[in-house]
Amino acid sequence: MTKISEIYHTKSSPVLSFEIFPPKKESGITSLYQTLDEVNPQKMGVDYISVTYGAGGSGDNTMTRDLAQYIQTHFGVTALHHLTGVNQTPESLRDNLAKIKQAGIENILALRGDLPDSDYVNADYPYAKDLICDIKQASTFNIGAAIYPEGHVDNPITGISVAGIKEKIASGTDFLISQFFFENDVYYHMQEALKNNYIKVPVSAGVMPIISKAQVERMTYMIGSSLPARLVKMIHKYENNSDDLKKAGIEYALEQIQDLLDHGVDGIHLYAMNRPNVLKSMLPIINQEIESKHF
Ligand code: FAD
């Protein structure tokens, strides 16, 4: 399958991708396969699909690999296998990399992962850069990493950490995916900072359509994303009507995407929470938007 950095370098229009997460129980895998069948990513112009690892309470990380393999063999779409450094040892990493390779996967999103508690330290892989370094030295995987336009929630400094990104790139990062944000200006400030520091690694802008009030509360608490006044008003207006809130949330995300495309982003990465209807309603509009811009 294709290396993702090659997609960024060869495609003239922005790269389109979305994230899925494995179900909590193995029995949920069939319905997730159905979800993907419904979305039909290849027909929808999706360049790659990323599959989370150990996030959202899923205890079985072999499902990440199974899902990534299914995406490639069933749809012919490139998969991006997330991998975290939390609870990883050099031996478990070697074992994981061998199994991922055997499954025909060539792309890894290397992350530190969320710490199980505030005292937790993994001396082998304290930061994502350490995991990235070992993956690069041991293999030929194409490596992606996370970037935070508003800063990382554990870090008291707001805004992007240029030094942190430089470390990730020096360790072997080939492309970046941003945390989602609801105010495009924070992304444009980040783009400016990268440009001023001669950082040319491709970056996809993360966009999360809001589909429920509980989702916004959970995500902003965990991630620390700021909510623009317009979005807060929208959530209040529709908080008792879930269908209207979902519709307004999708419209807000599509407006964000239109503006991001106008600002020449390298790619759009959708956090659509395994919702086929959200993806089915957004992807054709995004494709139309990309086509109309004649990149
Ligand atoms: P790092 O880059 O290591 O940063 C972690 C913290 O350490 C930051 O506060 C940073 O400022 C600080 N730091 C970094 N380097 C240094 C240094 N040299 N010295 C001092 N401080 C430093 N989590 C999952 O569990 N599974 C997933 O599948 C998953 N997918 C994700 C996908 C994307 C696109 C994003 C944006 C996040 C994802 N996450 C996932 C969440 C991620 O694991 C957490 O945000 C985690 O807390 C940080 O991961 P990182 O790779 O950015 O870590």
Query: What integer value in Å does the Rg equal?
Result: 18 Å
| Largest sheet composition | 8 strands, parallel, barrel
List of distinct ligands in this structure: flavin-adenine dinucleotide
Question: What is the helix/strand order?
Answer: HEHEHEHEHEHEHEHHHEH
**Based on DSSP secondary structure assignment, what is the total number of beta strands?**
8
Helix content: 40-55%
Specify the CATH architecture. Answer: Alpha-Beta Barrel
Number of helices: 11
How much β-strand is present in the residues?
Answer: 5-15%
Low-confidence runs of at least 5 consecutive residues: none
Q: Termini separation (Å)?
A: 25 Å
In the CATH hierarchy, the third-tier topology is known as: TIM Barrel
Number of domains: 1
Q: Average the pLDDT over all residues and give the rounded result.
A: 94
CATH class label: Alpha Beta
As laid out across the biggest beta sheet, the strand order is 1-2-3-4-5-6-7-8
Question: Which structural class matches the secondary elements?
Answer: alpha/beta
What is the global morphology?
globular
Keywords: FAD, Flavoprotein, Oxidoreductase
Pfam families: MTHFR
GO biological process, one term: methionine biosynthetic process
GO molecular function, one term: methylenetetrahydrofolate reductase (NADH) activity
